[in-house]
């Protein structure tokens, strides 16, 4: 992890011995412990870090009209009770376009309008709610519904 972690030396003088991990990976989940010695006093701190991930199948890039599966997983140990998905802040109803599975969402024919932030919210048997956002990028044609463009001879067309 050496290349992904840092401690702010200037913050240590103020009693802040935080560890920054960037980027966080799934395997980083677990118990972290810090020991700080000052004169003869030893301070100890333990922090449990959970990790939530969203993965795409097939992997990026997502092509317009080709099915994609968004999977949401967490290192939380309780049983998963419910998965909710939100697109642009609005709940996603399961219909013929979307199909929600435990921890996953299938988009059968992704359109350019499906690009943007998708939030996965997981609720567990211990009532813990964990969520994360994934910015979905879609490759496709985002132009007029009738892709015929007229331009005057001698002018530029975009």
Automatic annotation (TrEMBL):
Membrane topology reported for the UniProt record: Single-pass type I membrane protein
Domain of life of the source: Eukaryota
Domain Ig-like, chain residue ranges per copy: 50-131
Alphabetical UniProt keywords: Adaptive immunity, Cell membrane, Disulfide bond, Glycoprotein, Immunity, Immunoglobulin domain, Membrane, Repeat, Secreted, Signal, Transmembrane, Transmembrane helix
GO molecular function term, any single one: MHC class II protein binding
GO cellular component: external side of plasma membrane; extracellular region; membrane raft
Annotated compartments: Cell membrane; Secreted
Primary location recorded for the protein, binned into one broad class: membrane
Biological process (GO), any one: adaptive immune response
Family (UniProt): Belongs to the LAG3 family.
The name this protein goes by in its record: Lymphocyte activation gene 3 protein
Organism, as annotated: Columbina picui (Picui ground-dove)
Encoding gene (name): Lag3
């Amino acid at each position: 992890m050496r290349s992904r972690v840092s401690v702010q030396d200037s913050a240590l003088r103020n009693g802040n011995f935080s560890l920054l991990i960037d980027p966080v990976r799934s395997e980083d989940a677990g118990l972290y412990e810090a020991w700080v010695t000052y004169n003869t006093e030893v301070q100890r701190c333990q922090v449990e870090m959970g990790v939530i991930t969203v993965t795409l199948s097939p992997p990026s890039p997502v092509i317009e009209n080709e099915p994609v599966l968004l999977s949401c997983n967490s290192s939380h140990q309780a049983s998963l009770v419910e998965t909710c998905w939100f697109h642009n802040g609005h709940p996603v109803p399961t219909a013929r376009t979307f199909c929600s599975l435990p921890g996953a969402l299938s988009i059968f024919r992704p359109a350019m309008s499906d690009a943007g932030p998708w939030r996965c919210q997981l609720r567990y048997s211990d009532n813990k709610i964990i969520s994360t956002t994934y910015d979905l990028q879609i490759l496709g044609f985002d132009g007029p519904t009738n892709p015929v463009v007229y331009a005057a001879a001698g002018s530029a067309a975009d």
